Amino acid sequence: MAADLSQIVKAYDVRGVVPDQWDETLAGLFGAAFAELTGASALVVGHDMRPSSPGLSGAFARGAASRGADVTEIGLCSTDQLYYASGALGLPGAMFTASHNPARYNGIKMCRAGAAPVGADSGLAEIRALVEGWTATGAPEPAARTGTLTRRDTLADYAAHLRSLVDLTGIRPLKVVVDAGNGMGGHTVPTVFSGLPLDLVPMYFELDGTFPNHEANPLDPANLVDLQKRVREEGADLGIAFDGDADRCFVVDEAGDPVSPSAVTALVASRELARNGGTGIVIHNLITSRSVPEVVEANGGTPVRTRVGHSFIKAEMARTGALFGGEHSAHYYFRDFWNADTGMLAALHVLAALGGQDGPLSALVAQYDRYAGSGEINSTVADQAGRLAAIRAAYEGRDGVTLDELDGLTVTTADWWFNVRSSNTEPLLRLNAEARDEATMRAVRDEALALIRG
């Protein structure tokens, strides 16, 4: 009987508990299927610091080699370092990580040459079908030629590429606390930051996929507490937190207060537009702050609004030739990084902006943080479609209200907006609301929640 991979093959990646849901045998079949799908004569593979990552990554590499592909193994790396290798070497790539998930999990993020994503509608479904078929009938016969396995270190080249995109040589000295969460930021930050006028205070840089200090998920405020406390204790200029595979970065100011990813998006957008002559397209998803398109337009750019999710952002980046894209989840995408997301490059932009002027970070980002936001609020709802219909009925026809269904339902007026979206994997409705002031936001949020929860 063929293995049922429905629980581990997601919309954008493979992810599950090791060895309960998948193991090195399956990893080898995924490698063979990836080589088969891409038809590539060569590919690149990297992995994070989880205990299961080296074994899974090695099995995947051998599986791909069995189909004739020459495999470059770059070993320990961040996800954006794997994207760098895919882009710079012009090879399809596979990254073994489960990002911020607990230690028992692992996964594979796959891309075509140039870091172009592989998702359910761009090859992942075909990979799943091949693996399921082979588990039923046995692995395919080896190719006429077995590919080679070669080791290569790309960390220095990755760092040099990022540093070539942001000039930090002339900034004033900054004291920065970095919380790597025992994830891959502990591997990349020392090399990327080397030689810069930065007084680096490292936190949890020891690579440990059991996450002994806190989850490597800075989107949860509980995981920022240590960083916030240390920034205040050190009198630092800012703090930066990376998630487990270090493709997302979160920023706190000199007081330890979180800087919203929308404010970071607006700040980086203004810098990327200036670097490109004050013109260009910037992508933002529909639940980033209204300040993002306002800042883009004020700096000569054209904002383009998309659905939530990196596959939609990356598709729009490629379609429009956009300079930059940002999401509320702290994923930041750059044309000069093969349209892929890199939290490290966003962090360098924040450091350059802060170090290029004399004020504190809180004052710098205030111009980009103009509205009161609710953050994302999840509600368990059995009949998601029914509740969305009820919300639409409640607001349809009101004066000054517009509705759109680009992603869930967005209700907009001159003074406030909110969006309600269904989860793809759970019986949840997700609410995000924003208004010109805190009192209005709370009123809008509470009215929407009353409708959501019936």
TrEMBL record:
Name by which UniProt lists this protein: Phosphomannomutase/phosphoglucomutase
InterPro entries: A-D-PHexomutase_a/b/a-I, A-D-PHexomutase_a/b/a-I/II/III, A-D-PHexomutase_a/b/a-II, A-D-PHexomutase_a/b/a-III, A-D-PHexomutase_C, A-D-PHexomutase_C_sf, Alpha-D-phosphohexomutase_SF
Keyword Isomerase (UniProt): yes
BP GO terms, sorted: carbohydrate metabolic process
CDD domains the UniProt entry points to: PMM_PGM (cd03089)
A GO molecular-function descriptor: intramolecular phosphotransferase activity
Domain Alpha-D-phosphohexomutase alpha/beta/alpha: start-end pairs: 7-132, 157-256, 264-371
Cofactor: Mg(2+)
Superkingdom per UniProt: Bacteria
Domain Alpha-D-phosphohexomutase C-terminal: 376-448
Keywords for this protein: Isomerase, Magnesium, Metal-binding, Phosphoprotein
Pfam families in UniProt: PGM_PMM_I, PGM_PMM_II, PGM_PMM_III, PGM_PMM_IV
SUPFAM superfamilies found in the cross-reference section: Phosphoglucomutase, C-terminal domain, Phosphoglucomutase, first 3 domains
Species: Streptomyces tagetis
Family to which this protein belongs: Belongs to the phosphohexose mutase family.
